[in-house]
Structures are given as structure tokens and as C-alpha cells.
Design brief:
The chain contains 7 helices and 9 strands, in the order ααβαβαββαβββαβαβ. It has 275 residues and is α/β, with parallel strands linked by helices. It has a single domain, classed as Vaccinia Virus protein VP39 (Rossmann fold), CATH 3.40.50. α2 crosses α3 and α5 runs parallel beside α6.
């Protein structure tokens, strides 16, 4: 039985697929070299030789990362909440002549997947769509093999819920409490989907703040060893204050983590999360 968090996210992402939002558009112009550059595995400290390796694209539907990995020879599974997103993965796989397995589900419940079987779990931006990141980490620890890697991109906890619209003339005002599971929402950026076609406006994302201590301690508690951390910063130094490009220079909105699964000797660790 799916909860309200699942239903909200599924409905929103189905609507985003219908609107052909940026993150739902499959990559149809890839070859091996472009796929390798797009993923940037070596920059993350992960071997770029994924041929024959099992890769899980977690909450990563849309026909982008999945086909990039498949073109490099990986055995790819995509788990996503949206059937529309998964259809994009299947369509992109057919276009490129590669195989991708698709599974509709919740990142908080990976029971449909075999345990200790994935060499790499690739988790693009979605962690803040659920209240407690530790539940996700527990599931990832169950399906990744010992020595395997977990790539995670998520909101920078310090700026979660903050956008360029928060410009006050001098800076970007932090107004929301820095507490775990604090719910936040904000309008989609103009580049996310086309609003000029007269279609119905899509409900705003509903996200939950995850403090940095919860993220890091949650990973450590499940046996993950942090091997790489990057603040994802874009924008331009000459951008106008109050623009998205200026905001990204002042407040990097995303973090990237790479961890290796190294459970404690004598058994898998657990953070004993109660769900």
C-alpha cells in the first residue's frame, strides 16, 4: 500500500513526463565517447570500465543515465516511481539498440531487487523527495555488493528550499529552519518545462530537508565509506543578482557524494531506522 509521499511524487512526475520536462527527455544522440563524458566517472574516482558490471539507476528514469551506462557495456536496471519515466528508458534503449531492465517502485523499498548484487548504485537528484534519507541508505546497503560504489546527488542541505527568488537586494535570505524532515516547496525553474503551451500548471515539488549530519551519519551507519564530495556550482560571475546564474555562484544548490560499501566485519551494519 503506497503512502501519500509516494502518491504525490508519482502524480507529479507523471505530469512532468506529459509536459516533456527537462529531466524526462531521453538522450538520443549518445555514443560511447559522449556517454563516457556525460557520466564523468573518472572525475568521481569511479572506474570508467563498467562493461559487464551491474548498475542500478535509482530513482533515475527518463532515458538518460541508463542508456549511457548501457552503451558502455553495463548491465543496467532502472528503478523509478513513474511509469512514464520508465517508458522513456525503454524507448531510449530501443533507439540505441541496448538492453535496460525497468522496475517501477519506491526508493525506500528495494525488495524487488536482488541483495548484494550491484557494483554501482547511481542516484541522481531525488533524495529530498522523501522525509528520511536513512531509509533509502538502508535499502541501498542491502542491494550493493561489498566494495561497490554508491553515487548520490542531492540538495545542498544548507540551501535547501532557497532559490534565486529569495534575493532581497543584498543577498539570498535563509528563512527556513535547519531541521531534518522540514517540508519545503518552491516554484519550478522556468527551464524545467514549457508553460507557454496552455497546459495545466504542475504542482510544485514537495521536498524534505536532510541535514548534512543526517546524510553523512546515515551513510556511515550503513557501512559506506565516503571517497568523494563535490559542491556542484554553476552560474556566471557577471550574472545579475537575483538570477539563477548568480544564485548558483553564491549558494551552490547541490552536492555529489561517492561512497564505497565497506560493511563492518562480521555482518552488515544497520542504523536501525524505524519506518
Amino acid at each position: 500500500m503506497h503512502d501519500e509521499v509516494y502518491r504525490y511524487n508519482e502524480e507529479r512526475w507523471q505530469a512532468l513526463v506529459a509536459a516533456d520536462a527537462l529531466f524526462t527527455r531521453p538522450m538520443l544522440d549518445l555514443d560511447k565517447d559522449k556517454a563516457r563524458a556525460y557520466l564523468g566517472l573518472e572525475q568521481l574516482g569511479i572506474s570508467g570500465d563498467v562493461a559487464g558490471r551491474k548498475v542500478l539507476c535509482l530513482a533515475g528514469g527518463g532515458g538518460q543515465q541508463s542508456v549511457a551506462f548501457a552503451l558502455l557495456g553495463a548491465e543496467v536496471t532502472v528503478l523509478d516511481i513513474s511509469s512514464g519515466q520508465l517508458e522513456r528508458d525503454r524507448s531510449a534503449a530501443g533507439h540505441h539498440g541496448v538492453r535496460v531492465r525497468t522496475v517501477q517502485g519506491d526508493m525506500r523499498d528495494l525488495s524487488a531487487l536482488d541483495g548484494s548484487s550491484y557494483d554501482l548504485v547511481w542516484h541522481p537528484y531525488s533524495l529530498t523527495f522523501v522525509p528520511d534519507c536513512r531509509v533509502v541508505f538502508r535499502e541501498v546497503a542491502r542491494v550493493v555488493r561489498e566494495g561497490g560504489h554508491y553515487y548520490l546527488m542531492c540538495a545542498n542541505p544548507f540551501f535547501s528550499g532557497l532559490t534565486h527568488d529569495s534575493w532581497n537586494g543584498d543577498g539570498y535570505t535563509l528563512a527556513q529552519p535547519y531541521t531534518d524532515e522540514a517540508a519545503t516547496s518552491y516554484p519550478d525553474q522556468e527551464w524545467v518545462y514549457d508553460r507557454t503551451t496552455g497546459g495545466q500548471r504542475i504542482v510544485e515539488p514537495r521536498e524534505y530537508r536532510q541535514t548534512l549530519s543526517r546524510i553523512v551519519n546515515g551513510l556511515v551507519g550503513e557501512g559506506f565509506l565516503l571517497t568523494f564530495l563535490r559542491e556542484v556550482q554553476g552560474g556566471r560571475g557577471d550574472a545579475a543578482p537575483g538570477s539563477w546564474e548568480h544564485f548558483m555562484m553564491v549558494a551552490p544548490p547541490w552536492l555529489e557524494f561517492v561512497c564505497q560499501y565497506r560493511p563492518a566485519k562480521g555482518g552488515r551494519t544497520s542504523s536501525a531506522v524505524t519506518t
